[in-house]
Design brief:
With about 325 residues, this protein is mainly beta. About 10% of the residues lie in helices and about 60% in strands. The chain contains two helices and 17 strands. The chain has a 16-stranded antiparallel beta barrel with strand order 1-3-4-5-6-7-8-9-10-11-12-13-14-15-16-17. About 10% of the residues have low confidence.
Length: about 325
């Protein structure tokens, strides 16, 4: 029975790969015949980590670190309207679960130009992207204090529009079985992108469990005025039966191909996180990184120290 289950998983994984490869080929063929613009992108990221558990034991392990591959496609319809699609899968390069692919994003939509764009499918959270994104700058650690509902989810409809330096992003999750009036999650963010400062604010509501998330984030980038320093800050609040706030701040200094980054995060009445990292660009696409994070636990829980180093190639 076990051998049969393993064989079945292998067959399913192979079928998924063939389907994915066929999708790539078909989009490429359409690109030549029907002027569909396509782009294949992705990242292969591998790390060696030495993380400490709650018992004080360090575990040395070489493993995949969120590698992925994706396709962007778009085609002009006319009158300034474009159709677009995106398919992105996580790639388990270790094949640890006999299933090398994990769905990340799968969406289709219409871009109406100045009116904005509308998309549906499995999509990423505007709240997590635009609020937590200000401090989510490390490859392995960091952004541990941010309060948010999800990273990506299915059954979603999203709207986005850019007016000058202002971007609005909204999302609703509708799964047809739970929630209030069929809507399980609602999110909205507004981002102002200035020359040296980017500011975002937003809300995420879990209608099923009556939990709300509020957030504010900003990034100050002084590189445009000749100072190689970038600072990011995020404040998030989880409004539930017991409210929880999280604060994160990161700062980066770049010199040549190297970037040094430090961060601090604090969950209200709970853990504090101290994070540091060094990355070095070997080529335009390949870079190495070394990171460390110390978790200062409250109460009787043991503090932990984690270390990682890795290589990442982006294409």
């Amino acid at each position: 029975m076990i051998k049969e289950e393993k064989m079945m998983r292998k067959i399913i994984s192979t079928a998924l790969f063939i389907i994915f490869a066929g999708f790539v080929f078909s989009l490429t063929a359409c690109s030549e015949a029907e002027a569909v613009e396509t782009k294949i992108y992705g990242s292969i990221n591998y790390k060696l980590s030495n993380d400490e558990d709650s018992n004080g034991k360090h575990n040395l392990k070489a493993e995949n670190n969120s590698s992925y591959v994706g396709i962007d496609a778009s085609e002009g319809i006319g009158e300034g309207i474009n159709g677009f699609a995106q398919l992105e899968v996580g790639v388990d390069t270790d094949d640890s679960n006999n299933n090398p692919f994990d769905s990340r994003i799968a969406l289709v939509g219409l871009d109406f130009g100045e009116v904005g764009s509308l998309s549906a499918g499995r999509q990423s959270s505007p709240f997590t992207d635009n609020i937590s994104g200000h401090t989510d700058v490390f490859e392995v650690y960091g952004s541990s204090a941010d309060q948010s509902l999800f990273v990506r989810d299915t059954n979603t409809i999203a709207y986005s529009n850019v007016v000058g330096p202002i971007t609005f992003d909204g999302l609703a999750k509708v799964d047809g079985s739970t929630g209030e009036s069929g809507v399980d999650v609602q999110e909205g963010t507004i981002t102002y992108d200035g020359s040296t400062v980017t500011v975002s604010g937003g809300i995420s509501s879990d209608e099923v469990n009556d939990i709300y998330y509020y957030g504010l984030g900003l990034t100050a980038d002084a590189t445009s005025i000749g100072i190689p320093v970038t600072v990011g800050y995020t404040y998030t609040l989880k409004d539930a039966a017991t409210d929880v706030t999280g604060n994160e701040i990161v700062g980066s200094y770049s010199t040549g191909n190297a970037t040094i980054t430090g961060g601090y995060g604090k969950i209200e009445d709970s853990t504090s996180f101290y994070t540091a990292g060094l990355s070095y660009g070997i080529t335009d696409s390949l870079y190495s990184y070394v990171e460390f994070e110390h978790s200062d636990k409250t109460g009787s829980a043991n503090d932990t120290d984690n270390y990682s180093t890795g290589l990442k190639f982006t294409f």
